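Field notebook, page 520. I keep forgetting to write these up properly, so this time I am using the form the group agreed on. The chain and the ligand, adenosine monophosphate, are recorded exactly as supplied. Prediction of the bound pose follows.
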Amino acid sequence: MPIQFKNHFTSKLPADSILENTRRQVENAMFSYVNPMKTSNPKLLHVSDKLCAELGIKHSETKSNEFLKIVTGNKVAETSKPYAMNYGGHQFGHWAGQLGDGRAINLGEIEYNQRRWSLQLKGAGPTPYSRQGDGLAVLRSSIREYLCSEAMHHLNIPTTRALSLALTGDKVLRDIMYNGNAAYEQGAVVCRVSPSFLRFGNYEIFSARNDITSLQTLVNYTITEHFSYLGKPNKKSYVEFFREVANKTLHLVLEWQRVGFVHGVMNTDNMSILGLTIDYGPYGWLEGFDLGWTPNTTDKQNKRYRYGNQPSIALWNLYQLANALYPLIEEATPLEEVLESYKQDYLADSLQMMRNKLGLISNKQEDEKLVQNLESLLQKVETDMTLFFRELSNFSGKNSKDGFNIIQKAFYNLDELTKELKEEWHAWFDQYKNRLSVESTSFEKRKKLMHQTNPKYVLRNYMAQLAIEKAENGDYSLIDELYQLLKNPYEEQPDREKWYSKRPEWARHKIGCSMLSCSS
Ligand code: AMP
Ligand code: MG
C-alpha cells in the first residue's frame, strides 16, 4: 500500500503565499511549499527496520521502487504536499536572522498506532531558505546522521529518528575543512522522522520580527498538538509550556553528559522544542574523558559547545526562548523562575546521574566530593570514558587495591601513570569502596544497574569514519554492522567485542574522527 500522508502541520498553520522556489525572506508564514529535486540515480543503502515497524511500514514495502523514489524525493506521493519550515536562530551566540529548512523538505505525517510522525528528507534540494547553500548533503554526513539517530534512540536518549539512507547518484561539491580544497563527493538523502521538527528558532523568528500574531498561532498549535496535557493555550499554559521545554531540555543534556555525547552545534535552530537530539552535524563521542573537548573545528577557538559547557549552553538557549515567548506572557518573573529552577535542578540531577553511573542507590552527602574527585582524576591522563564506567562495574568493593587493575584498560597510555597518580587512584577507590559499603545492593545487582546506565557500545567517531570510508568505495556492509551493533548498546555482544575498545592511534588526529567541520 502506498504511504498515506496526512498534512496536519500545513493545514493548521499559515503558508507562504509565494510558491516560487527562490531564496528570500519569508514573512508571516510558518512554511513554504516546495518540491524535492529529482536525482539521477537513487539507490537505497539502508533502512531502519525498527523505525519501519513503528511507522507500520512493512519490510517488503521498503524494497519497492515506490519507496525508493519517495524517500529520495524522486516522487511526491499523491497524499503528500512537501514543504520547508521557516525558522531563525542564534548561532554561536549571535542572532542570525532567518535560517529555515535550507536543505530539508518535509513530506507530511504518517499516523500509526495512535502516534503521528513527521517525515523529512535531508539533502533533497534547495528551498526558499537555502541562502547560499545548494540544499544537498553528502554521503559522509548522511551516514553519520543516519547511524547516530538510531543509536541514540537505542540508548534511550530522546532524538529524531532516521528511516532510510540513500545515495542520490549526483555529485556534491564540498570543502571539508574550509581550506580551499573543495572536491566532489557523493550526494545522499536521509529520511528523518520525528513527532515534530519544531525548534526554538521557529518561535524566535516571529518574536524577532515582532510578528506576535504568528508567534501566538505557533505556540497555540504546539501546545494543542504536543503539550495538550497543559490544557487550553493561555498565559498560564504558556508559562507551563516553557517549563516543560526547560525540563525536557535539561533531561536531554543530562543524557548527553551521561554517555559522553557532544552535539557540536548547539545553536538555537538546532534545539528541538520537544527536547530531542536534532541535526547531527559535527557531533562526537568522548573517548578520553575531557570536559573541554569539542569535535567541531569550526568552534576550535572558543569551544563554546565543548562537552562540559553543554548544560550551560542549553540554559543560554532557554533564555533566548524565554525572550521569544515573553510578548505572549508579558511578565518576566515566571519565566525567570523556570530558568532559575533549571540551575537548581541541574545540580541535583547531574549528581543523581553520576550516582547512577557509579551504581549508588542511596543519597549521601559525600557523593558530591566522590564525583568531583573522580572527574578531576579522569582528566589527569587520557582515560576512555566508555571503557572506564563499563569496567568499573566489575569492582566488587571488597578491596580498593583491585580497583586500579580493573579499570586499567581505560587508560590510553599506561606509561603516563606516575606513582603519585596511581596513589591518587588507590585513594579514590578507597573512598568509593567505603561509599559502597553503606549500600545494601549486592555486587551482582549493582553491576546490572551500572550496565543499564553505562553503555558498552557507542558510535565512536572512528567507527563512523570506517563505515564512511568503506561506503565511499562502494562497500556498505559496515553501515549495517554498526546499525546492528548499536541496537543493543547496553548488552554484552561477545561476537562484536572488537568494537569495545579504545580509539585506535591512527584516528587520534584524523579528519572525520577527531576533527569535524560544519561542512556536510
Ligand atoms: P546546520 O548548522 O547544519 O544546522 O544548518 C544551519 C542552517 O544552514 C540551516 O538553516 C540549514 O538548513 C542551512 N544549511 C546547511 N547546509 C545547507 C546546504 N547545503 N544548503 C542549504 N542550506 C543549508
Ligand atoms: Mg540545523
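OBSERVATIONS:
- The chain has a mean pLDDT of 97.
- The first helix runs from residue 8 to 12.
FOLLOW-UP: compare against the apo run.
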